[in-house]
Amino acid sequence: MIFQCKNCGGNVIYSPEKKGMYCPYCDSMGSEQRKDTQGDIHICPNCGGEVPVEEYTSAVRCPYCDNYIILNERVEGENTPDLVIPFQYSRDMVKKLMREKFAKSIFAPTDFLSEARLNTMEGNYVPFWLYDYQVNCQYRGEGRKVRVWTNGETEYTETSVYDIYRDMDIGFEKIPADASVRMPDEVMDLMEPYRYDQLQPFRPEFLSGFQGEKYNMPAEQIEGRAKGKMEEDANQLLRSTITGYGSVINQSQSIRVGEQKVSYGLLPVWVYSYQYKKQDYPFYINGQTAKIVGKVPVSTAKVWVYGATLWAVLTAMLTMLYAILVLW
Ligand SMILES: [Zn+2]
Ligand SMILES: [Zn+2]
Question: Which of 15, 202, 206, 247 has the highest Cβ tally under 10 A?
């Protein structure tokens, strides 16, 4: 499907600034008309050009006419997302932000913040499984407190032994695991946290103006990642209630999952695929919170110029290069 403007026939997209459907061609709001398409999904319904549709593509920009096409069969039926966090940051907003954050980065190549390069950024809806769990945690252990005192020549030791028993019900909501092979898991973990109170029921309109993917693997396949996070948190919560003892011997512990639910959600990420000297420096910007995760490229020409006078700074910068940068 595509969303076409009733007034001018242009492609209507979802605008994060205006929080609604917007036609950039005639500057009107709410003028969209959904046009469903049948037939070959590789053909642009607007201009007939061949569109780069991959195995999991659910929304894509036509490289010839710039219309954003949403592939019906990949957002409908069993592929319908339950929830979506719409983009809160537009391309222009992210461009401005990148320039502010990296304005003082003297080692970045000159075109890193150029208009042409920054315009290649694409907003992507990344498929996620969101897991809810009701769990019951039980714990048994033995705690000891030792008190030592002296009276005259004699030293007394008093050891008190306590039975520790905990029985806790904990509810976990929306533990995320990304279901996209293309998105590196460690990057997506750093993109967190999303604010899940802004999740909305899915509507295809939100995809207009962005790229999208349907889930690459079923919820059961990647559930281990969410369960791992849940168990870690449950453990921590449990342990945080056991304090005040000199020593603790653990006897038994169980985490039992009761009710559980999984929802299919789409979360917004801007991707800036910057290349420098045949090296990739992908940048990822959380489309809801604008948290930036990426590597900073270094231009050797610039390093040479500044190297003589700013050696200390240079060393620090170079060390940083090999780490993943997170800007908030
Ligand atoms: Zn229009
Ligand atoms: Zn086209």
Answer: 206
Same structural domain, 135 and 19: no
32-79 per-position pLDDT tens digit:
999 998 888 899 999 999 999 999 999 999 999 999 999 999 999 999
Q: Which residues surround ligand 1, an ion (CB under 5 A)?
A: 5, 7-8, 10, 23, 25-26
Residue 205 lies in a domain: no
Identify which ligand lies nearest to the alpha carbon of 37.
Answer: 2
Q: Is residue 270 part of a domain?
A: no
Task: Give the global pTM.
Answer: 0.83
Count of the separate structural domains present in the chain:
2
Concatenating the DSSP letter of every residue in 285-310 gives EETTT--EEE-----HHHHHHHHTT-
User: Residues in the chain, how many?
Assistant: 328
150 is a domain residue: yes
Rounded distance from Cα 23 to ligand 1 centre (Å): 5
Q: What is the pLDDT of residues 282-295, one digit of tens each?
A: 889 999 999 988 87
Ligand 1: distance of its center to the CA of 28 in Å? 6
For ligand 2, the distance from its centroid to the CA atom of residue 43, given in whole angstroms, is 8
Please give the C-alpha separations between residue 295 and each of 101, 118, 279, 289, 326, in angstroms, as whole numbers: 13, 15, 11, 19, 9
Residue 138 placed within a domain = yes
Among residues 263, 297, 315, which one ends one of the domains? 263
Ligand nearest to the CA of 25: 1
Q: Check pLDDT > 50 for residue 175.
A: yes
Least confident range from 92-96, 106-110, 186-190, 314-318: namely: 314-318
Tokens at 281, concatenated: 């420096």
Host domain of residue 60: 1-74
Which listed ligand is nearest to 24 at the C-alpha? 1
Q: How far is the CA of 9 from the centre of ligand 1 (A)?
A: 6
